[in-house]
């Protein structure tokens, strides 16, 4: 179910999220709420703190990241990232970013063009991803949300 997005200056956005240790029905509902809200907002990504849950999980819409404007999606279009750890970052660039928690605002921030991330999926399976470009930038943006860091903190 789509839920309201927490907007700045809500102090919850500056809190550090806790790791996921239980992959039960409540966790799966949280993931579904993240996906539904991200899709309802036509966003590329959304982190749990942005819907009021201080949990280390975010979702990305790979189809939207690839440039599709279609609102249709398939489950394989969604990347669910649980307890992420950035293993590697390279090649600093300027990134023009927006954020659902800052309606209408855009900022240019420094991000790495390439990252390597290890995490779990929603079924508790480990995975590693090396990302370039927009996917790399979105991963960093969402990991920042889990760490209580906002894009305005990176100006």
Care to describe what's here?
With 155 residues, the chain is α+β, with helices and mostly antiparallel strands. The chain has one domain: Peptide Deformylase (Alpha-Beta Complex), CATH 3.90.45.10. The chain has 3 helices and 5 strands; from the N terminus they run αββαβββα. It has a 5-stranded antiparallel beta sheet with strand order 1-2-3-4-5, with helices on both faces. The longest helix has 16 residues, at 25-40. The radius of gyration is 14 Å and the shape is globular. The mean pLDDT is 96.
Which terms would index this structure?
single chain; 155 residues; alpha+beta; Peptide Deformylase; 5-stranded antiparallel beta sheet; 3 helices; globular
On the 0 to 100 scale, the average pLDDT is: 96
Provide the domain count: 1
Write down the secondary-structure element order. HEEHEEEH
Largest sheet: 5 strands, antiparallel
User: Portion of residues in helices?
Assistant: 10-25%
Q: Brief overview, please?
A:
The chain has 155 residues and is α+β, with helices and mostly antiparallel strands. Helix content is 22%, strand content 33%. It has a 5-stranded antiparallel sheet, sandwiched between helices.
How are the SSEs ordered, and which strands pair?
Blueprint: H1 25-40, E1 45-47, E2 57-61, H2 62-65, E3 78-98, E4 106-120, E5 126-132, H3 133-146
Antiparallel strand pairs: 1-2, 2-3, 3-4, 4-5
């Amino acid at each position: 179910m789509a839920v309201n997005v927490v907007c700045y200056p809500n102090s919850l956005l500056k809190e550090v999220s806790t790791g996921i240790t239980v992959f039960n029905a409540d966790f799966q509902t949280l993931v579904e709420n993240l996906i539904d809200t991200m899709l309802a907002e036509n966003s590329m990504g959304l982190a749990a703190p942005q819907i009021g849950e201080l949990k280390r999980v975010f979702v990305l819409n790979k189809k939207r990241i690839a440039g599709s404007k279609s609102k249709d999606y398939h489950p394989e279009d969604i990347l669910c990232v649980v307890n992420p750890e950035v293993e590697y970052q390279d090649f600093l660039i300027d990134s023009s970013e927006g954020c659902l928690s800052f309606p209408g605002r855009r900022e240019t921030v420094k991000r790495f063009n390439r990252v390597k991330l290890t995490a779990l999926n929603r079924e508790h399976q480990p995975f590693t991803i090396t990302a370039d470009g927009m996917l790399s930038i979105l991963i960093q943006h969402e990991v920042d949300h889990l760490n209580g860091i906002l894009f305005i903190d990176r100006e």
